[in-house]
Amino acid sequence: MRWPARLLVALLALGAAGTGNAGPDATPARDWIAQASGRPGAWTDHGLLELPSGMLFVGDPTWGDDYHIRDPRRLATAALRVFSRSDEQGRNLALWLEAAGGEPKATGERIEFGVDAATVALGDLEGGRALVAWGESRLEKGLGDSFDWLSPILQEKMNFARWLPIPPDDRPIFIASTGMDGGLAAVWLLDERGSLSGILIDIAGRASDGQYLDTLLPAAQ
What we know:
Largest sheet: 6 strands, antiparallel
């Protein structure tokens, strides 16, 4: 029996959505994340996050102060590739900042942070500082702080994962919805050689028990 061409294409697409890693650009890291999560989902490539300062920040950008940049970390790489993984309703399952992309074998550093408005931001430290400065300049003009500026942006749609230019110089940061408040972590995942595979922010956890995927790996010795 021969499958009609359109049906075959649809079936192949459905299979790809199961892991979100179809095509030649798949990496062992993204394959591992997809399989370990046990959740159907699709990857979106958001392009390069350049790190001119050499420092990465991750945190909740909506507190109207510098909370999101209180625990920046220095990286040996000049850029990371930003991916989001979402389910068929568009809800974000994970964010992945890819470096070498090798299969994760251990965990390294971590940035722990709280989420109070179902939103996480990340980027080069200078972008995070630009958001603080923008909020302060608005307060001086009686326009409200950075939260007042961010609020309508975050309410444009329920699920989002996108770049956000910060005035006045349009320094980019990346923002994504989490669908919940609480504690999250950005965790360094290392390959078998101890090199940085990437940085994982697991939002949904494993389907079977909600366990965060980084907890499935041992800490590096």
